[in-house]
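Listing S7. Sequence submitted for prediction.
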Amino acid sequence: MCSPASRRPGHRFLSVEGGGSVGRGERDTVARGARLCEAAQAVVVDHGRAAEAVRAALKPIHDAAVKRELDAIPVARLQDVTEGRLRLGSVEKSGLRTVGSVLEAGPYRLRQIPGVGQRTVDQMLAAARRLAEAAHETVAVHIDVERPEPGTTALVMALHVLVEAGPDARRAVDKAAVLSKRLGPLLADARLTVGRIRLLLAGQEKKARAWAAVTEIRSLVDEAERSGLPELLAQASVDLLRMPPSDIAAWVDFELRSAEYYSLLAEISGRQPDAAAAEGFLPDEIAERVRTQPLDDAHRRVSLRGYQAFGARFALAQRKVILGDEMGLGKTIQAIAVLAHLAAGGQSHFLVVCPASVLVNWTREIEARSALRVTVLHGPDRHLAFADWKGRGGVGVTTFDALRGFPAPGGGEVGLLVVDEAHSVKNPKAKRSQAVAVWAERCERALLMTGTPMENRVVEFHNLVRMLDGDLADSLGERERWAGSVAFRKAVAPVYLRRNQEDVLTELPSLQQTDEWEELSASDEEAYREAVRAGNFMAMRRAAYLRPEKSAKLDRLLEIVREAGENGQKTVVFSHFKDVLNVVREALATAHTDGTALFGPLTGSVPAGRRQQMVDDFADVPGPAVLVAQIQAAGVGLNMQAASVVVICEPQIKPTIEHQAVARAHRMGQVRPVRVYRLLATGGVDERLVKLLETKTRLFDAYARRSAVAEASPDAIDVSDTELARRIVEEEQARLGMTDERLTAAE
């Protein structure tokens, strides 16, 4: 218990025989300790209250979901539970046809059914309760953003408090719990030093314990103040007590950050995914070692789901590994967690190697999700940047091709090498693969990441494993017949971890949206400048696809489609422009996307009946498929829930156009989470559109998406297209030094 110290005005100190003296410094120390302890306890209480609010809002929703589940289970299932011992014909004839109705009827009504004795009633109810318990543990709550109700609104608002408080609040709560546990007993012992009579009458042992407690309190308080803990606790309390400005604001935030809401919901409800699945079905001895691996979050700015924390610990405990999680599970966040932990432990240099198409994304993610310094080692000044990174440290982010031009490090210089899209270096004869292999050998730790399932590609898998552990790779030669089997997974467990969405996302986020920022290639940049010089706004928007042989956006699009196909998923690709769709279709047709069916382009010129047939064919084809569609033509009226991956080739002028297009896949009947990728180019029209429309997007989310009129007519809300186009053209001409040239009318 935390208690403030009593004070006597004007009393400097008191000499106590055999026990030292009671001075103002001791009283101040105890008072400082008491204030810190009270602040810590307040944070713990505030967090507990916020978590309890979530549980209270969740309970009626979860109970209703369990009831719906039980009402859908036929009463015949009770036979399975009791191994056929029950005779239920008379029960069904009485009108009780589901397990839910049996539980609701209760023992008295069941006993009134002709031919049903007490023993049958007892067995029936026991079996029904077993099914109810199972349903209670397994039924997940899904928050429907299209039909918000008072109950789900209360839940979203309760979750918003914790999501908005963020990782700093969780860090404050963890530190507060430890601190209050330590300070409480010390303050109880030290209280003796603030009372003259009490200290005078105490025995020597109590006095010694009291003085020792004061010394330890002073040390704890000084350390807390040096680390900024009082400020962290104060801010956490403020954040945990702050309510969202409105239910609309909470719903908008939920749509933007649904994964964080669902993560907290799973954690607070205790309905975590199956532990074995979350741990990638690793052998017990490896899993146990990973569980006990510490994970420091001091430099991290993002909360982790349980399986993500395990993935980061796996990389730390095993040192050189392949993380093969299915796309959409946050491999990048897990890598950042590893980087942050190692930085907290004193490591200074890290390197991320990735395709050029995701280089900007990596830079932005590290900056947003951690406190680590980032240096881009790419472009004409890459060698100067490399020298700067060598001298100052932090995370260097480079491409496979650029890596070949950098000198390999000496042993111990680089704390972690991260290789994204690691399947790109599966060919040991390729120069990029050889460069990565040298760096992997020289670095203390290596994390290779790929969303491509590797179990059925044993030869390719061998090549990746060899970069990390040559002996293990050699031993796999005799196990090729185990590809995809439990035995194979066990054999590669020391270096390989893979989890699937359906196994670990018990509370599936309804929608996952990713802005994919790409750097324009030199060819893209040239085409873009020509469009800007001409003052052609629409040409500026599609310039990134005008020269497909060197298009950065197109390269990233092909990577997304390929990975989706590898995971058996269907993809819809949207663009405003017909010529962009033709470029995309041609690229997909000539790319190596084995087994992926291709449909479209679906445009406004395609008759309505043919459009639906095209969508039906896309849905009916077994396995992966791609539908290329014009966003205006396919974004309204066609249901595409067969697709779980959506690619938007360029940002749209009206936010509702994107929302409606995504809603074609993200709607009733969708059994997988929908992953949306919006392809954006840095530094030009895309970036300006995103910034100018950001506020309008939030307003559309808050109002237009809840309006039947707006849903039916995206043009109902004007965003001043012509004025917007004129403004962006002028700003881009000024940025590129073309202000002296005549401005032509934007299309």
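Caption to Listing S7: primary sequence and predicted structure tokens for the chain studied. Residues 79 and 86 are 6 Å apart (CA to CA). Residues 4-22, 698-719, 742-747 have pLDDT under 50 and may be disordered.
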